[in-house]
């Protein structure tokens, strides 16, 4: 039998501030972390979390992950010593791009000053697995450690893979999540050239006027444990990861399948993995990028996967408050989903004012509202879809 | 133009460089070991780059493996230049 997976710690660094609860509280209050068309982590000060040496040994995306991991492990009660054999603790921290700031800075040095001036830290800081390696070293996690790189589904993939490591007995606990720090000129120009970013700099998922995503940065880390062992050690269980579904569109490098077939299947698989049905779902945290294509295809997918139940399920997008955190989106949104389910509240899709024909789900426009679930278990889905046609969906339940 | 290699000049460059890698300035001396200063192989790779830039002296991986103290590093640069 598969093991039950408990979430015992959460940490986040987002455009809404430092801390998982800061993200949750500010989002449900309707605060936006977007300024001048981007979602920067303006409140993050590396030196508050890292020594001089640690800070210069890490790209910004790794710094976010380290800070979030400290918060998550502290909440799990692991800050002094991990409650498991270190060899039985995994570390899966994904990213979409990795240390692109380090890459572009050193490329500039190469062009302007020649190869001898390129920093020996370039590769260890820019590599996509740098955050996974740094988190594992910081907390002495000696089990399987790696970094899923699957664009904007990397966060959900990381948590899903972490869940499976524990389910199948390859680890007793996994520190998992994802991170991104790509607010650099190259990424702005490249996403701009793709016509994927909002020219207006406004993130308003599911609104008829939406014109693309707003790029943000940040990270989230979750501590997952074998629930039986977590209970035995007296841990406070925040939530359970009930199911994980992952599929591929095999359709187009950047565009979603216009019918959302792959996304539909990923949601179905996540529910089936959890042994649940659409009627059990009380909230969907949409991928909801604010691009014309995603929000339409995702709406179709939610309807196809959840059927009649979709009409009554609140669906909202964290990206309306913080923009699109790319590889970090999935883990940040899983954290937001867990806290929303715990507080029995549907956070809002900010900026949604004009409806579009066919986009007719309950997107919780503008204002949070209580989840009226009559004592039912608080079960939600968190969707993550990425360039490359990757789809990853998590089924989460508040404890 | 590279700086003339004198023990004093090399020592100054090395002493000045180490704090940026996180070494405690008050603990830096010729006798201090890189281990004590928490300076590892990645830091030494960066230090080599600074030395080459300043003095035109290249330190290779083999050389770096033999260096234990700050003084060892200074002496090796001076001897390579000579």
Provide a concise account of the structure shown:
The complex is a heterodimer of chains A (399) and B (82). Chain A is α/β, with parallel strands linked by helices and 399 residues long.
Please give the structural blueprint:
The complex is a heterodimer of chains A (399) and B (82).
Chain A: E1 5-14, E2 17-18, H1 20-28, H2 52-56, H3 60-75, E3 89-94, H4 100-113, H5 122-126, H6 130-138, E4 145-146, H7 154-167, E5 173-180, H8 185-193, E6 218-226, H9 227-232, E7 239-248, H10 261-274, E8 281-285, H11 292-306, E9 315-316, H12 319-322, H13 329-342, E10 345-346, E11 369-370, E12 379-386, E13 390-398
Chain B: H1 7-17, H2 41-55, H3 61-66, H4 70-81
Beta-strand level of the residues of chain B, as a percent range? under 5%
User: In DSSP terms, counting alpha (H) and pi (I) runs of 4 or more, how many helices of chain B?
Assistant: 4
Q: Structural class of the helix and strand makeup of chain B?
A: mainly alpha
Order of helices and strands of chain A: EEHHHEHHHEHEHEHEHEHEHHEEEE
Basic shape of chain A: globular
Low-pLDDT runs of chain B: none
- The backbone outline of chain B, from C-alpha atoms, is globular
What is the average of the pLDDT values of chain A? Answer: 97
Q: What is the H/E order of chain B?
A: HHHH
Our estimate of the beta-strand percent of chain A is 15-25%
Tally of DSSP β-strands of chain A: 13
Largest sheet of chain A: 11 strands, mixed
Structural Rg of chain A:
19 Å
């Amino acid at each position: 039998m598969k093991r039950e997976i408990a979430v015992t710690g959460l940490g986040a660094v987002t455009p809404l501030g430092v801390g998982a609860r800061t993200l949750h509280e500010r989002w449900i209050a309707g605060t936006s972390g977007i300024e001048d068309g981007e979602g920067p982590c303006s409140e993050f000060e590396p030196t508050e979390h890292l020594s001089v040496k640690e800070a210069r040994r890490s790209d910004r995306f790794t710094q976010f992950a380290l800070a979030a991991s400290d918060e998550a492990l502290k909440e799990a009660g692991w800050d002094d010593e991990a409650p498991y054999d270190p060899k039985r603790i995994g570390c899966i921290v994904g990213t979409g791009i990795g240390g692109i700031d380090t890459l572009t800075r050193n490329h500039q040095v190469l062009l302007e000053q020649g190869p001898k001036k390129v920093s020996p830290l370039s590769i260890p800081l820019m590599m996509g697995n740098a955050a996974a390696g740094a988190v594992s070293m910081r907390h002495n996690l000696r089990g399987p450690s790696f970094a899923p790189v699957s664009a904007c589904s990397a966060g959900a993939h990381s948590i899903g893979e972490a869940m499976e490591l524990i389910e199948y007995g390859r680890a007793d606990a996994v520190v998992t999540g994802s991170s991104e720090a790509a607010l650099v000129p190259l990424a702005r120009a490249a996403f701009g050239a793709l016509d994927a970013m909002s020219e207006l700099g406004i993130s308003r998922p599911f609104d008829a006027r939406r014109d693309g995503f707003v790029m943000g940065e940040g990270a989230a880390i979750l501590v997952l444990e074998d629930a039986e062992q977590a209970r035995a050690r007296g841990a406070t269980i925040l939530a359970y990861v009930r199911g994980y579904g992952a599929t591929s569109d095999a359709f187009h490098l950047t565009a979603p399948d216009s019918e959302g077939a792959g996304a539909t299947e990923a949601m179905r698989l996540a529910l089936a993995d959890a042994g649940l049905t659409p009627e059990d779902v009380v909230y969907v945290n949409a991928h909801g990028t604010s691009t014309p294509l995603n929000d339409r295809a995702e709406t179709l997918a939610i309807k196809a996967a959840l059927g009649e139940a979709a009409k009554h399920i609140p669906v909202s997008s964290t990206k309306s408050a913080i923009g699109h955190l790319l590889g970090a989106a999935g883990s940040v949104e899983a954290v937001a989903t867990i806290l929303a389910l715990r507080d029995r509240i549907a956070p809002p899709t900010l900026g949604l004012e004009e409806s579009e024909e066919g986009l007719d789900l309950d997107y919780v426009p503008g204002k949070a509202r209580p989840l009226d679930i009559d004592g039912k278990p608080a079960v939600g889905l968190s969707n993550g879809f990425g360039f490359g046609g990757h789809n990853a969906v998590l089924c989460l339940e508040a404890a | 133009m590279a700086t003339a290699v004198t023990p004093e000049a090399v020592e100054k460059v090395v002493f000045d460089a180490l704090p940026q890698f996180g070494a405690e300035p008050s603990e830096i001396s010729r006798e201090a070991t890189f281990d004590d200063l928490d300076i590892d192989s990645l830091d030494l790779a960066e230090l080599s780059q600074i030395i080459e830039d300043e003095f035109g002296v290249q330190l290779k991986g083999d050389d770096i493996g033999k260096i234990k103290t700050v003084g060892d590093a200074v002496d090796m640069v001076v001897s390579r230049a000579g």
